[in-house]
Amino acid sequence: MTTIRLVQGDITRESADAIVNAANSSLLGGGGVDGAIHRRGGPAILADCRKLRASHYGKGLPTGKAVATTAGDLDARWVIHTVGPRYSHEEDRSHLLASCYRESLRVADELGARTVAFPAVSAGIYGWPMDDAARIAVETVRETRTAVEEVRFVLFDETAYRAFAGRIV
Ligand code: AR6
């Protein structure tokens, strides 16, 4: 059984086996949680990302996929980078957002991670409405078979925390 926990705060301050990054396809950094993870985790994470771009992911990491690197100076063993979809009013991309959680947990299982911290993927710069992002995140984690014992959603502000809390009861 996977336990779901909610925390309000900065994911770069968390201690976990794996911390998930809401990255972009380039894997080379950005704003939001991605910027924060690279800032606090230090240059080792970017060095690993560059290696991935030079090998398996020459064209970048596709939306909905996940890949692991070192966690550098973070209090974790790995960062799992996943690329959420940008929210679209014209097209339902929910399956891609669900895939981010499924694929991240699959990578976590491959690594042997037992505790995994997630941000609200796509719900910042990529514009996904928070309530719907929370629904997809919680439903997908509940439906995914994984050896991960604890999934911790680390929500940056109270609005995000409340959206996730509303899905947990
Ligand atoms: N800890 C926890 N949550 C955070 C933190 C933090 N330190 N910082 C922001 N959030 P976003 P996206 C929240 O924009 O929407 C980047 O440029 C934030 O409030 O980080 O998937 C990437 O490189 C929001 O609720 O990710 C991509 O280009 C959630 O994390 C793009 O942004 C996700 O917001 C990805 O956009």
Automatic annotation (TrEMBL):
Q: Which CDD domains match?
A: Macro_OAADPr_deacetylase
Which Pfam families does this one have? Macro
List the InterPro entries. Macro_dom, Macro_dom-like
SUPFAM superfamilies the UniProt entry points to: Macro domain-like
Domain Macro residues, every copy: 1-169
NCBIfam families given in the database record: PRK00431.1-6
Protein's name in the database = RNase III inhibitor
What species is given as this protein's source?
A: Streptomyces pseudovenezuelae
